[in-house]
Amino acid sequence: MSTGAIIAIVVVVVVVLILVGLAARATARRRRDSRRDEARELREQARHRTVDAEGARAAADQQAAQAHRSEAEAEELAAKAREDRALAERQSMAAERHSAKARTHHDEAREVDPDLSDDGHEEALALDRD
Question: pLDDT of 75-99, one tens digit each?
């Protein structure tokens, strides 16, 4: 082989090696770009999910606060109901005492009044009319 042919072969081999190297670089660059795009998409999805999670957390916090307010209102109403029940019981007991005193006075009046019979029938009728 002549020297020119050897030089031509070496030049062709060098050119082919350079082309293979350039192709390998281009492939690696495309792969990096593709991975960057994928990473960008993943970050965007993560950002959206973070926003969604924060919204859900805020809604849950709001719901919990509403539940606490409702519980407090229920406890307040229950306390008011207990207070009203106790007041009603005291008033009922006082009414019973007054009724007992009134019966005692009616009994005493019946015993003292010479115009009424001892059975209290006329007095009961008079009380019903009032």
Answer: 999 999 999 999 999 999 999 999 8
